Amino acid sequence: MKEETKMKNVMKKIPAILMMAMILFTLSAPVYAEETTTVAAQTAETEQITDTEDATGDKALGAAIAVGLAAAAGAVGMGIAIAKSSEGIARQPEAEGKIRTNLMLGLVFIETAIIYALIVAILIIFVL
């Protein structure tokens, strides 16, 4: 019973932790911003290359954040699913086969969502 209460307390803190991480990423964005100064002697080609490099860095940062958040959320979801399935098996050992089947199906769906996030991040970096 004590462990169950601890688990509930941890689960209540997860949205706050994720919100703090998002705020941290948002507030740290200006740190990574570069101040671009143009010299009158630079050509249009050099300016275009600089803009492209800046855009690539921004894309990489956005893709990294997207994949990181998807993986973190997926890991939390998988942890909850595994904990609940273990609890269900402990309560009803005769239903172990059905519980395990549903658990595996759920984990596959969660992992698929994470892989979709990775594919979108790759598309952001290389296509856009």
UniProtKB/TrEMBL annotation:
InterPro entries membership: ATP_synth_F0_csu, ATP_synth_F0_csu_DDCD_BS, ATP_synth_F0_csu_sf, ATPase_proteolipid_c-like_dom, F/V-ATP_Csub_sf
GO cellular component, one term: plasma membrane
Residues the UniProt record annotates as site (Reversibly protonated during proton transport): E111
Record-annotated membrane-spanning stretches: none
Organism superkingdom: Bacteria
Subcellular localization, as worded in the UniProt entry: Cell membrane
MF GO annotations: lipid binding; proton-transporting ATP synthase activity, rotational mechanism
Keywords attached to this entry: ATP synthesis, Cell membrane, CF(0), Hydrogen ion transport, Ion transport, Lipid-binding, Membrane, Transmembrane, Transmembrane helix, Transport
Domain V-ATPase proteolipid subunit C-like: 61-124
SUPFAM superfamilies assigned to the protein according to its UniProt record, in alphabetical order: F1F0 ATP synthase subunit C (SSF81333)
Pfam families: ATP-synt_C (PF00137)
Membrane topology: Multi-pass membrane protein
Physiological role: F(1)F(0) ATP synthase produces ATP from ADP in the presence of a proton or sodium gradient. F-type ATPases consist of two structural domains, F(1) containing the extramembraneous catalytic core and F(0) containing the membrane proton channel, linked together by a central stalk and a peripheral stalk. During catalysis, ATP synthesis in the catalytic domain of F(1) is coupled via a rotary mechanism of the central stalk subunits to proton translocation.
Homology family: Belongs to the ATPase C chain family.
HAMAP family: ATP_synth_c_bact
Name the UniProt record assigns to this protein: ATP synthase subunit c
Species: Marvinbryantia formatexigens DSM 14469
